[in-house]
Amino acid sequence: xxxxxxxxxxxxxxxxxxxxxxxxxxxxxxxxxxxxxxxxxxxxxxxxxxxxxxxxxxxxxxxxxxxxxxxxxxxxxxxxxxxxxxxxxxxxxxxxxxxxxxxxxxxxxxxxxxxxxxxxxxxxxxxxxxxxxxxxxxxxxxxxxxxxxxxxxxxxxxxxxxxxxxxxxxxxxxxxxxxxxxxxxxxxxxxxxxxxxxxxxxxxxxxxxxxxxxxxxxx
Length: 219
Hints:
This protein has strands at residues 2-4, 10-12, 15-17, 31-36, 54-59, 62-64, 74-77, 89-95, 98-100, 105-110, 112-118, 121-125, 127-132, 136-137, 145-147, 151-157, 160-163, 175-178, 188-194, 197-199, 203-205, 209-211. The chain is mainly beta. It has a 7-stranded parallel beta sheet with strand order 1-4-7-10-13-18-21, with no helix packed on it. Strands 2-5-8-11-16-19-22 form a 7-stranded parallel beta sheet, with no helix packed on it.
């Protein structure tokens, strides 16, 4: 399900069961719910102007394997995020979802300010919750950084996360918050990571991540 320049969208009580991996793309590419920017190659109506997705809720959904196909790489994520300066998704709530056996980070939102990831259950997944800024860059290969895209307001609260070796034979972090430093530093501020129950994985925070005053981040 692609949320491309969407305002006030809700994805609720859906079952995303079974995913066929694209062998030409990395596992980070496989989101059941994608937060997207409209760009030249992915806009089927309207302007390719990089309008971000805002005021979105992803509530009470399930992502896992089907009877014939393995699980998704992610429940929520984005793989077209840093292509426009100042175009940042905003006010996203990801709450009460269950993810079984994700092949990558079960919840991997990039380029999203004012995001809350709360009360989700992630079982035996390659990675848990990954939130990152994404510096604006050209789409040329190799890409060139063009501007900083800071984000602020990240709440990762009261989730249950179990991390296990995935099909890619890698084990990622249970909770990770990263400030992108590709060419420019895109800081992540006002972060709160509290009340999470974690098994088999670690907490990881990069440089240029600052925490909400009065909170102690889990480690």
